[in-house]
Amino acid sequence: VTPSAPEPEPEVETPAPIAEATRPPVVKPPPPTPKKEEAPVKAEVEADSPRPQDGRLLEVLLSGQGLFRRFNFSDDRAGSLPNYNLNHAAAASLSVGYFPLSHFTDGMVRNLGLVVRGSRTFGLSTQTPDGTEYGTTAQMIEGGLRFRLPLQWLELSMGALYGTHSFAVELPPESTLALPDVDYRFAQVELGLYKALTERWAIAARVGYQHVLSGGEISSDSFFPELSGSGLNGELAVEFALTRMLGLRLGGEMRRYSLSTNAAEGAPVFAGGAVDQYFSGNLGMYLRL
User: Fold this and answer.
1) Where is this region: Disordered (predicted)?
2) In contact, 255 and 231? CB cutoff 8 Å
3) How far from each other are the two terminal CA atoms of the chain, in whole angstroms?
4) How far apart are CA 108 and CA 74, in angstroms?
5) Sign of dihedral through CA atoms 46, 47, 51, 52?
6) What is the DSSP letter of 271?
7) CA 211 to CA 203: how far, in whole Å?
């Protein structure tokens, strides 16, 4: 038996090559640009402004004054009442404003505070027509409440005060000179303004009205017991700040009392009224905290 010839094995077909997707060329990123290292910028410290900020706790002003006075009676029919002229006198004044509520709150009520002002002459004397000199004293003290209202461009203030303003010549009891002393007791309302012009310069102004409650010797039974009167006062000053807390202040002040005697016809001493005026120039230093 002859074996049959083996059948030929089927040819294995070579697989067709798999088509590969074309890869995009790899683009290398450009090398980073070298950065310059900048020196760190130091924060600049701004110098404190010499002008104080709102909400000051304490204000103190100490000044020297040059004082002038003019006192004149009107309608003095008998001509027995002398007028008084003071051409120059030296005085010192002190003003203190304190706002205690600033310790406890930042609200509007912190602007309500206390104010006290006073002035007194020193080394003053009065020479009578016969050439005799007598010691003389002039002083003013007033105090009360003050409310300040800070606005965008300026500061307003309002005050209600009680005060006394006296001018006394130490005449001996036997003197026949009919020159009455004055000791005005008054209630006062006032309005003030403060305006910063630059970092160092500022202006301040104040006006007040006084209702005279009594006049001292001039309103006694010896002169005009029915005396009544009122007063006006004003101040204008310029300031220069030396530091944030200290500065100089130069200004002038005027006080004018208009008096009506209300004397009856035939009274032992008769005059229709009187005008009592005071002028002063002030130079001082202030402290604000």
Assistant:
1) 1-52
2) yes
3) 137
4) 48
5) positive
6) -
7) 27
Residues 6+ apart with CB under 8 A from 197: 203
Extended strands (E) in the chain: 58-74, 84-98, 112-121, 125-127, 133-150, 155-169, 182-196, 201-214, 228-241, 246-260, 273-288
Distance CA 226, CA 4 (A): 168
DSSP 8-state secondary structure symbol assigned to residue 151 = -
Q: How does residue 268 score in pLDDT terms, banded at 50, 70 and 90?
A: confident
Specify the pTM.
0.80
Which fold is adopted by the domain 58-170+179-288? Lipocalin (2.40.128)
Contact 280, 250 (CB under 8 A): no
What is the CA 44 to chain-centroid distance, rounded? Answer: 32
pLDDT over 90 (residue 158)? yes
Cross-strand partners of 191: 158, 207
Joined together, the tokens standing for residue 267 give 């009274």
Q: Where are the domains of the chain?
A: 58-170+179-288
Structure tokens at 138: 């002039």
Structure-block tokens of residue 145: 């409440």
Contact 40, 111 (CB under 8 A): no
Greater model confidence, 233 or 26:
233
Question: Left, alpha or beta for 14 (phi > 0: left; psi -120 to 50: alpha)?
Answer: beta
Length of the chain: 289
Nearest to 167 by CA among 149, 155, 179: 179
Q: What is the token pair recorded at 258?
A: 């208009």
Tokens of 60: 């103190």
Q: Give the tens place of pLDDT for each residue, 22-73.
A: 555 655 666 666 666 665 555 444 445 565 556 789 999 999 999 999 999 9
What residues contact 137, with CB distance under 8 A and at least 6 apart? 120, 121, 124, 166, 167, 168, 170
**Alpha carbon separation from 76 to 72, 81, 153, 263, 277 (Å, rounded):** 10, 7, 50, 11, 18
